[in-house]
Amino acid sequence: MPPLLSAQIRELRARAHGLNPVVSISENGLTDAVLKEIDVSLKAHELIKIRVYGDSRENRLSYLERICSELAATAVQHIGKLLIVYRENPENSAVDRKKAQKSRSSEPRRTKRSHQG
C-alpha cells in the first residue's frame, strides 16, 4: 500500500477519534489468533483501534510494525496504549462508490432557470 499523504492521515485520525477499540492485545502479546482477528476487523471496517495491555512502549511499537507488515496495513497513529491502523478494502470501496452513484442518480436534477423580471 502506498504511503498516505498527511491530509489523508489527518482525516483518518479525525474519523478514528470516535471509534472504540475492536481488538485487544493482552499480556500474551500479538499471537496468530490476535493477528487473524485484526485482519477480519480491517476487512470489515478498514479503520480500527487496537488496545494494547502492557506498559512496554517498545512492545507496542513492535506490535504496530508487525501488524502493518504482515497485514499490509498502514499505521495511522500510536497514542498511549492505542494503535490506529488502516487498510483499504477494495470491496468496501467498490460498494461505497456504487452507493454514492446510486444516491446521485436518485436525486432530482437541478436545472438552471433564467430569472426574468
TrEMBL record:
Q: Which positions fall inside the CRM domain?
A: 2-98
Task: Establish whether keyword Lyase is in the entry.
Answer: no
Question: Where is composition skewed (Basic and acidic residues) in this entry?
Answer: 91-109
Question: Which domain of life does the protein's organism represent?
Answer: Bacteria
Q: Which GO terms describe its molecular function?
A: RNA binding
Q: Give the span(s) annotated as Disordered.
A: 91-117
Q: InterPro entries per the record?
A: RNA-binding_CRM (IPR001890), RNA-binding_domain (IPR051925), YhbY-like_sf (IPR035920)
Q: Which PROSITE patterns match?
A: CRM (PS51295)
Which SUPFAM superfamilies does this entry report, sorted A to Z? YhbY-like
What keywords tag this UniProt record? RNA-binding
- What is the designated name of this protein? RNA-binding protein
Source organism lineage?
Bacteria, Pseudomonadati, Pseudomonadota, Betaproteobacteria, Rhodocyclales
